[in-house]
Specification:
This protein is of the alpha/beta class. Helices cover about 25% and strands about 30% of the residues. Helix 4 links the parallel strand 2 and strand 3. It is globular.
């Protein structure tokens, strides 16, 4: 038995394991590899919550511009605080959709599960803390409305979308911006978690029609009661013509 195998087995006895720290094994390294390879200079962080994603980008070495969008007041306050000392990180207190609007959003007890769509029983059964605890009025704007000001025609964009079932509305309001999007990261649901939200295969096919191909998948959410895989995170890059 080799020393490496022996160390593996010893670690596993104590509930641990180790893997090669590579882009194939760790999603954050795959993301950074794609950002570098596609010469990205602007990351759109859509559904930013308190700013953890943008902070992870900085920790991974990304030094370009970030635009973070978060509609909920409490989460946005912490997001804005996190961005204060970073001159290349702009924050916006709003959701993105297919049109300009002002709507009511359901605030979840598990705040990152908050959505503009109604949660399904499958989600609630898997994570009871995600039940709605309040409602909040928020602003919605289409991403296209940022072209010419915050988004320049020369920008090469990495677009991360974490909007709990509202993905199609975000894409519908971003058709012009998508011309500059070189890569995209999106949560994909394998079972209905929000009423009217797109499922895995629907989104894969839709993004293929928009010119994007899947290059990476990673685990997000499993039902602890049934072990059913509910959500994964996908990274897509624009197809070469």
């Amino acid at each position: 038995m080799s020393l490496i195998i022996a160390i593996h087995r010893l670690c596993q006895k104590f509930g641990y394991d180790f893997r090669r720290y590579s882009a194939d094994n760790f999603p954050e390294l795959k993301r950074r590899k794609v950002i570098d390879k596609q010469n990205i200079n602007l990351v759109l962080d859509i559904g930013a919550s308190e700013g953890f994603y943008a902070e992870e980008l900085r920790e991974a070495g990304y030094k370009g511009r970030i635009m973070s969008f978060e509609p909920l007041g409490g989460s946005y306050a912490r997001l804005n605080k996190s961005s204060e000392k970073d001159p290349l990180w702009d924050t916006f207190n709003m959701a993105l959709g297919d049109k300009e609007d002002e709507v009511e959003m359901s605030v979840s007890g598990h705040v990152t599960s908050s959505s503009l769509l109604q949660m399904t029983d499958a989600h609630l059964n898997a994570l009871q803390s995600s039940a709605t605890v309040s409602k909040e009025k928020i602003k919605v704007r289409p991403l296209n409305s940022f072209i010419g000001n915050q988004i320049k025609t020369s920008d090469r964009i990495y677009m991360k979308v974490d909007v709990q079932g509202f993905e199609m509305f975000v894409l519908a309001g971003a058709d012009k911006v998508l011309e500059q999007v070189e890569a995209m990261e999106m949560e994909l649901s394998l079972t209905p978690l929000y009423q009217g939200g797109p499922l895995f295969l629907d989104m894969i096919q839709h993004l293929q029609k928009l010119g994007f191909v899947l290059v990476s998948l990673s685990h997000v959410f499993t039902d602890p009661n049934t072990e059913q895989l509910l959500q994964v995170d996908g990274i897509f890059i624009k197809k070469l013509n």
